[in-house]
Amino acid sequence: MSKTIYILNGPNLNLLGTREPEIYGSQTLTDIEDMCREAAKADGYDIGFFQSNIEGELVSLIQEAGQKSSALIINPAAYTHTSVAIYDAIKAISIPCIEIHLSQPAARESFRRRSFVAEASVGTISGFGAKSYLLGLQAAIHLLEADA
Ligand code: DQA
Predict the structure, then answer these.
(1) Domain 4-147: which topology?
(2) Is the CB of 115 within 6 Å of ligand 1?
(3) Where are the domains of the chain?
């Protein structure tokens, strides 16, 4: 089993730190990446951490995750609520997917209540700020070790 876990980030998450900090917190995506890398390393895993504002690039990265990693953690950002292409890409790979969000979309605007990605994921972690990433990582490692 590959000891790599992919963590993918969708549109506007490159602006974390300055983007609506009252909702998304003050940590940058690089801060979150560093935190995840360190936590994964402590458990003997590497991470591939990527962000794109482009739906098709995320589809390609999901396909790559299916080849190069054992589990996928994804914060699809706004594409959560719109993207059949991302849903299809997750369904097309055979590794487990965990959906994560910094905020709690279900407690926000009604258009955020629908998640296409949830329908292709093992589970969802949302509402814990940057900690959602670490909880997602724990969930992924738990799944992989339970499977081993
Ligand atoms: C988000 C929630 C989405 O609804 C939103 O479009 C985002 C970020 C989150 O992490 O809370 O861009 O995925």
Answers:
(1) Rossmann fold (3.40.50)
(2) no
(3) 4-147
- Our answer on whether the CB atom of 51 is closer than 6 Å to any ligand 1 atom is no
Kindly give the distance from the C-alpha atom of residue 146 to the centroid of ligand 1, in angstroms, as a whole number: 29
Q: How far is the CA of 143 from the centre of ligand 1 (A)?
A: 24
pLDDT tens string, the chain, 148 residues long: the values are: 889 999 999 999 999 999 999 999 999 999 999 999 999 999 999 999 999 999 999 999 999 999 999 999 999 999 999 999 999 999 999 999 999 999 999 999 999 999 999 999 999 999 999 999 999 999 999 999 986 6
Dist. CA 104 → ligand 1 center (Å) = 8
For residue 78, what is the DSSP state?
Answer: G
Q: Which amino acid is at 131?
A: K
Q: Where are the beta strands (DSSP E) in the chain?
A: 4-9, 46-51, 71-75, 97-101, 123-126
